[in-house]
Amino acid sequence: MTGATGKISQKILPASLQVPSVTLRGTAEKYISAQQRAYLEKKYEPSDFKPTFKRVDMWGRARWKAPKISRRRLNDMRKNCEYLNIDPQEIGLLAKPERKLLRAKPNKGKKHERNAPERYLRRLCRIDIA
Question: Exposed site from 25, 31, 92, 100, fewest CB < 10 Å?
Answer without folding.
Answer: 100
